[in-house]
Amino acid sequence: xxxxxxxxxxxxxxxxxxxxxxxxxxxxxxxxxxxxxxxxxxxxxxxxxxxxxxxxxxxxxxxxxxxxxxxxxxxxxxxxxxxxxxxxxxxxxxxxxxxxxxxxxxxxxxxxxxxxxxxxxxxxxxxxxxxxxxxxxxxxxxxxxxxxxxxxxxxxxxxxxxxxxxxxxxxxxxxxxxxxxxxxxxxxxxxxxxxxxxxxxxxxxxxxxxxxxxxxxxxxxxxxxxxxxxxxxxxxxxxxxxxxxxxxxxxxxxxxxxxxxxxxxxxxxxxxxxxxxxxxxxxxxxxxxxxxxxxxxxxxxxxxxxxxxxxxxxxxxxxxxxxxxxxxxxxxxxxxxxxxxxxxxxxxxxxxxxxxxxxxxxxxxxxxxxxxxxxxxxxxxxxxxxxxxxxxxxxxxxxxxxxxxxxxxxxxxxxxxxxxxxxxxxxxxxxxxxxxxxxxxxxxxxxxxxxxxxxxxxxxxxxxxxxxxxxxxxxxxxxxxxxxxxxxxxxx
Length: 492
What we know:
By secondary structure, the protein is an alpha+beta fold. It has 10 helices and 10 strands.
């Protein structure tokens, strides 16, 4: 009973062994295949060199033996019948012994005689040509010697010029070898051999030994995996407990960090929206003080929009992440030209009045017949207002001219808004984009203003709200000077 409980504490299950075994088998099979192919290729190259060298050595030794026999026959004089028979028998034994080897397919002594190439394979023919020199012209070449003679003609010039052994491979195994044959110090022809070295048994032996070592290696790996599995299972219980405690602690820290970040961002947003609401409430008070019968309708409409904007600001203060249906919804029928014109005339032109010290003028160039947007007009206000405000606050030492242009592409179904100025432009650091395509000017707490811990939030807020509207906001410097913000809104 103790043994099963011990295994149970190791979390030991049969599927673990099966997975390990399958992984090892697949890995070892792939490794064996790759190594077998590479080993086979290496041995093929080595065997090709060995077979070529072996074929050339056999042919060279045979040629040398023939040359020595001929020289020895010429020294033996006078030549009688017994001597002639012994010499012919020596030639026959030399050639026949080569043919008896299973690797040698053909042996010919090719000589130039009477303007043609004669293929000799009999001892009597060689004897008659070089020791008696009387009947060789009457011998007809055998049909089997045609390929050898053709090969000799193809390589004759190279054989004469270089006086080296000529060999070539036919297919994968057969070698054709020509060895220069010398008679009285001059090349008189060549010894030809067609050799097919057989190394299949040697390769088979090597592959068999490699397969056995591969099986042994697989077994050792599997045993190693099992040992590792038992060791790992032994420590898994304590590890899991420690990881669980660390996970709980880390989760608690992350929740606290997220809550702190939300509180920090929410505080900045409240400060930002409170500042805008405070400014609009001042306009409402000013309009109410100047209320008369003749401007009653105009003031009422303007104050109503102011009040609706303040309501929107208060709603933004309720939650950091408002639902999408209060941002874009088919019930919203917004004309962006009217929103921009109201913000310019009733916000900025009431704050920044032309003076000798700081002149700010806004030029509007609106496209006609633009489509209605299903975006809350006060959300559009929250996007447009910080972009215009940015252009003004970062060019306080200029007689600033801001030009706002709206364009509509009926083919692409895309509305474009450009907010451009003639100021000093944006620094290159603010226009660098990260890996997500967001430029530095649209990141949180990034600003060119000094001495304010609450700066750098307006453009970031415009970016975030535009993203939720499925709009694209961008910034760049104009060639003629000044900066330009662009908004692209799909209308399809």
